[in-house]
Amino acid sequence: MPPCDVTPETYKGRDYDETMRVKKKHISPTKVPAYSEPLLLTQGKMQWLWDHEGRRYLDMFAGIVTVSVGHCHPVVADGLKDQIDRLWHTTNLYLTPPMHEYAEKLTATLPDHLKVCFFTNSGSEANDLAMALSRQYTKSFDVISFRNAYHGGSPYSVGLTAHGTWKHNYPNGFGIHHSVNPDPYKGIWGGSKCRDSPIQADRECGCMGECEAGGKYLGQLREVLDYSVSGRPAALFAEPIQGVGGAVQFPKNFLKGAFDLVHNPLPS
Ligand SMILES: Cc1ncc(COP(=O)(O)O)c(C=O)c1O
């Protein structure tokens, strides 16, 4: 492993067996780890993690990409420390400076049509909100996402998610339709010329010259609009690269075509 100039603190907290005992007794069994003996992680710094015995790991997972600036990044940590002794929560009935400072800095990086923020606590809530806003704004009800998509686990957003493993026996997905997943690697169409990516699928391509898979998957989306949607959909949800479903990249021009289709869904 590459060298690292951080010396971790010696961990003096609860030991491994005791932590596992508490986990088994007091933590919901839905949090099943992928390992029979999961790591007990006690410290992190940028790309590095340490376990309770001081072993160092190069973290290529970053909390499922949520800590993408690194663990305990000094700029983020300083901002947190600065605020934590000054003011916590007030409700949004009042103004507080950091939210406005953040909104201005964030929107400065975004294009002109994305200049308004609505801060939420999680991806699921963001998608719940996006779905509610789109239905309010368009006065339409139908929403479309793709099979193999993951858009959250809250009772509302789980309807957008299209993996049986993440579905449970409660009602979800009212008004949501899942179109065929435009996956040039494992899907019904596509091959080595189709992905919108420098890295192509190692699968023989049946396309003659230009990629034809994108158009065929758009045809499936067209059919969802024709057969399942009443007029215009309120929204289409799509991951630019599907994550939970396995780093799936769509065919060339597919997302642009899907965007155009849902904005002009009525047959010409
Ligand atoms: C693409 C995508 N959208 C939404 C979510 C849901 O985010 P959260 O777990 O913060 O609710 C995830 C989580 O993995 C995700 O990968």
TrEMBL record:
GO terms for molecular function: (R)-3-amino-2-methylpropionate-pyruvate transaminase activity; alanine-glyoxylate transaminase activity; beta-alanine:pyruvate transaminase activity; pyridoxal phosphate binding. It is found in: Mitochondrion. It holds the Pfam family Aminotran_3. SUPFAM superfamilies: PLP-dependent transferases (SSF53383). It catalyses: N(omega),N(omega)-dimethyl-L-arginine + pyruvate = 5-(3,3-dimethylguanidino)-2-oxopentanoate + L-alanine; L-ornithine + glyoxylate = 5-amino-2-oxopentanoate + glycine; 3-oxopropanoate + L-alanine = beta-alanine + pyruvate; N(omega),N(omega)-dimethyl-L-arginine + glyoxylate = 5-(3,3-dimethylguanidino)-2-oxopentanoate + glycine. GO terms for biological process: glyoxylate catabolic process; L-alanine catabolic process, by transamination. The keyword Coiled coil does not apply. Keywords: Aminotransferase, Pyridoxal phosphate, Transferase. GO terms for cellular component: mitochondrion. It comes from the Eukaryota. Its cofactor is pyridoxal 5'-phosphate. Its EC number is 2.6.1.18, 2.6.1.40, 2.6.1.44. Homotetramer. Multifunctional aminotransferase with a broad substrate specificity. Catalyzes the conversion of glyoxylate to glycine using alanine as the amino donor. Catalyzes metabolism of not L- but the D-isomer of D-beta-aminoisobutyric acid to generate 2-methyl-3-oxopropanoate and alanine. Catalyzes the transfer of the amino group from beta-alanine to pyruvate to yield L-alanine and 3-oxopropanoate. Can metabolize NG-monomethyl-L-arginine (NMMA), asymmetric NG,NG-dimethyl-L-arginine (ADMA) and symmetric NG,N'G-dimethyl-L-arginine (SDMA). Belongs to the class-III pyridoxal-phosphate-dependent aminotransferase family. This is Alanine--glyoxylate aminotransferase 2, mitochondrial. It comes from Ciona savignyi.
